[in-house]
Amino acid sequence: MIPFIFKRIINLIPILLGTSIITFLLIHLVPGDPAEAYLRLSQIPPTDEAAAHIRKELGLDKPLYVQYFIWLLDAFQLDFGESFITGDPVFEEAIYYLWPTLQLTLAAIVLTLIISVPVGILSAVYKDRLFDQVSRILAYVGASMPSFWLGFLLIYFFSFKLGLFPSGSRGTFVHIVLPAVTMCLVYTFTFTRLLRSGILEFMNQPYVMYARSRGLKERVVIGKHVLKNASQPFITAFSISIGNMLAGTVIAENVFAWPGIGRYFVSAIVNRDFPAIQFCVLLMTIIFVLINLIVDIIYAYLDPRIRLKGDQLK
Amino acid sequence: MSTEQLLSIKNLNIYLQEHGSDTRNQIIHNVSFDLEKGKVLGIVGGSGSGKTLTSLSVLSLLHDKFSVTGSIHFNGADLLQLPERKIRKIRGKEIALIPQNPMASFNPIISIGEHMVESMRSHQKLTRKIAKELAIYYLEKMNFADPSDLISQYPFQLSGGMLQRVLIAITLSLQPSLIIADEPTTALDKVTEDHILHQLEIMKEEYDTSMLLVSHDFHVVSRLADEVAVIHNGMLVEKGSIVNVFRQPNHSYTKQLIDASIRLKREKP
Amino acid sequence: MIKEIMNNKLLVFSGAIIVLMAFVAVFAPYLAPHDPNLTNLAVRLQGPSKDFLLGTDHQGRDILSRLIYGARVSIGSSVLVVAVTMVISIVIGTISGYKGGRIDYFFMRFCDIIMAFPGLVLILAFVGIMGPGLFNLILSIILIQWVTYARIIRGMVLSYKEQNFVTAAKMLGSSNVKIITRHLLPGIIPQIIVLATLDIGTVLLHIAGFSFLGLGIQPPTAEWGAMLNDSRQFLRSHPSLMIYPGMMIFIVVMAFNLFGDKLRDIFDRK
Ligand SMILES: Nc1ncnc2c1ncn2[C@@H]1O[C@H](COP(=O)(O)OP(=O)(O)OP(=O)(O)O)[C@@H](O)[C@H]1O
Ligand SMILES: [Mg+2]
Questions:
Q1: Could you give the domains of chain B?
Q2: Between A and B, how many residue pairs show a Cβ–Cβ distance under 8 A?
Q3: Predicted confidence (pLDDT) per residue in A183-222, tens digit
Q4: What are the TM regions of this chain, as residue ranges (chain A) (predicted)?
């Protein structure tokens, strides 16, 4: 298990390097001069002289690969440059905003699992009955619902009309309820269907029939022989969706004025704050890659074929 | 008379209706046979003749796209009328199935030992530790060299023949009164086949277990069975004592099957 | 039987919504009672009236007209994205699947890398790097989406390639282009239509979402997502500003999703 994890971590390095190179290149190749953005944000008149001066100061006059190496060297010391807007190190700013986002995502994930797993199992067990039909309709609704609209509806009814939850910003536990619900509802019913079809697929496996033939209780048959196998496609989809959820926080944070990295990123995009944009992209990659790693470890834990692979061949 | 019968199948029909389809096909036609306690009944037929479907219907294990009519009396009760809850108590404990395809019958992510332990523990009050020791004991009976190592292995680490032997060990450990063995020796080499048939013989002698022995090979059946039933295209074409059927087959299909198995035996080195 | 009719009913129903919306989008200038961008602070935030059937927004613009023009932008840009995506995917997917070999290998590795990341994350990153605006948004979505579809189409082509009549056509000496256009493509077109229909809903949600964030369509252009963003300050006092555009997005996306799904059911049965 340990060598397995170690190997996976080593594999991450080229991915991160690749991402940083691509982001770096794209930012510098795309129209829109960072020096001009800097001047605009610092409210200095963008004359040619001023631009040349700033280019020199920011190191933008050097060849691209030199710039990249300088950036990389700095990155190793956790120096990702200063925000054009605030002048503060983007690393510190981003980390400051990251925590609330992780909190929100985590709440949404937990909520999604709490709802979708039992509903998925029940939909499979009561296939084509009323329960299943309702969950099918909800899946359509969930897949077609714009999350920002859902957020507004929730605010309007639960906050303004009923006064049950606050309409925005961060604070006590109740503040997280509406944004988390907004983020989770979109995914929950899709997952429900996914889990349902996974279960139904594995229900017909010969080993499930054999488990039944030995007189195991239905609860054991489903829980042990079906669910553990059926959970793998579910986990794959889930890991992808966690990434999408993280990106989706952008919207929830915007609707509920949640002070997270999503809002930070959006304002950086709007203002063309290049160091902040670059670091946010990198951060998203790192988080997503880490999620993948965790998922792979869960896989290996669930499936001995992955854990013990290589025993037989070579 | 009928009280001596352990298993008595009467007018069994099995229909297939695929999900969302309007047509219903009959696959098993009016099959009837009896099995006396302590005896072995061979069910012989070619591929696709309906042997597996018939066997699975006894334990109500068919997918719900199949519908079954007729009666299957076991120890006096009609299995087709029993509620799922009661059937579950019979499965494994009274009637144990040795499924046709050992490679597909094990859950790939559950260890061999766990397969055995969970089976025993679902019918008897046993601690995990004792169940594990019993598992090792039964695996030893199946001539495994190192059972205590085997129980922590996973199905994909074993060969098909080994898995077949584990299936029989599981069946042994459940000590049922009736075993339904679906092609227990297909796709095995002759030495392993011999060994497995020998184990089944021991089970029959030692524990007085009755058996439905399903096979396409007359030769295999003739070794163990007292009686034989021949199925062709979902219909029972012939039944009788093994000696009679072997000597004087009435149906041309039975003759073909016997000829084929004799030819096979001759070709054997 | 009942199921079949139900399926068809939903198919007809969702199809009708789509046709209606397409009609509205195309003939927006004739249907809209007002100029969608005409501001008139004297009539701001009014309720429904004879003049303004759905009322006016915070700048006194007619909401109905903005919704009608919004259909044009939202649906129009989604269809554009999906159309371009599909053309790229069909070309590359077919070449990769049909030719096989090294081209196919490199294509698949490329897909593995791109598809390892969730789509939304990539689109966000691309828009982030290229900057806000409808053009950049559309470009980003196309750049990300085509990979997934090219791969699916490659799979279809592969499974079709093995079929007898393709081999026969090859042996009869048909040119590759002929085989692809006469035999392969007609066979996979139904599946591609299903894919495209289902995708329009997703793309529309993306475009509306990014416009809502201010990263897509820029004000004052009437677009449903951007309208929702405008409605934010008046959520408590004038919830209808938020209800209408959201409802439009929801209905249109739902119609495309339903239509695609039911279409797939029908093609699958054949
Ligand atoms: N899951 C299934 N779905 C549809 N038809 C089936 C299914 N299983 C079996 N059948 C049909 O039922 C018939 C009998 O199948 P069965 O598996 O009982 O044959 P068998 O005698 O066990 O054959 P074999 O010796 O190959 O195992 C076959 O002709 C097959 O077409
Ligand atoms: Mg069979």
A1: 1-94+180-268 (3.40.50.300), 103-175 (no CATH)
A2: 85
A3: 888 888 888 888 898 888 888 889 999 999 999 998 899 8
A4: 12-30, 104-125, 137-160, 172-195, 234-256, 276-302
Range of the domain at A220: 91-270
- Tell me which long-range contacts A7-12 makes (C-beta under 8 A, separation of at least 24): A8/A293, A8/A296, A8/A297, A9/A293, A12/A289, A12/A293
- Ligand 2 centroid to Cα of residue C121, in Å, is 50
* CATH number for the domain that contains residue C237: 1.10.3720.10
Residues of A in contact with C232 (CB under 8 A): 152
Interface residue of B105, B174, B183 to substitute, partner A, most A CBs within 10 Å:
B105
User: What range defines the domain where residue C24 resides?
Assistant: 2-36+48-269
Chain B residues with CB under 8 Å of A205 CB are 104
In a domain? residue A114: yes
Q: Which helix (H) or strand (E) holds C223?
A: none
User: Does residue A220 sit in the same domain as residue A263?
Assistant: yes
Residue nearest (by alpha carbon) to ligand 1 atom 16:
B50
Ligand 1 atom showing the smallest separation from residue B63 Cα: 1
Residue C43 lies in a domain: no
**What ipTM did this prediction achieve?**
0.91
In a domain, A83, yes or no: no
Q: Per the domain annotation, does A56 fall within a domain?
A: yes
Inform me whether the C-beta atom of residue B107 falls under 8 Å from chain A C-beta atoms: yes
pLDDT per residue, tens digit, chain B (269 aa), is 444 789 999 999 999 988 777 788 999 999 999 999 889 999 998 888 999 999 999 999 998 889 999 999 998 889 999 998 899 999 999 999 999 989 899 998 899 999 999 999 999 899 999 999 999 999 998 888 899 999 999 998 998 889 999 999 999 999 999 999 999 987 678 888 888 888 888 888 888 899 999 998 888 888 889 999 999 999 999 888 988 888 888 888 888 888 877 776 665 54
Q: Under DSSP, is residue A297 helix (H, G, I), strand (E, B) or coil? A: helix
Q: For the purposes of burial, counting CB atoms within 10 Å of the CB of B32, is it exposed (0-12), middle (13-18) or buried (19 or more)?
A: middle
CB pair distance less than 8 Å for A265 and C117: no
Interface mutation vs chain C, best among A23, A149, A238, most C CBs within 10 Å: A149
- Residue among C34, C93, C38, C35 nearest C60 (CA): C38
DSSP per-residue codes, B221-236: HHHH-SEEEEEETTEE
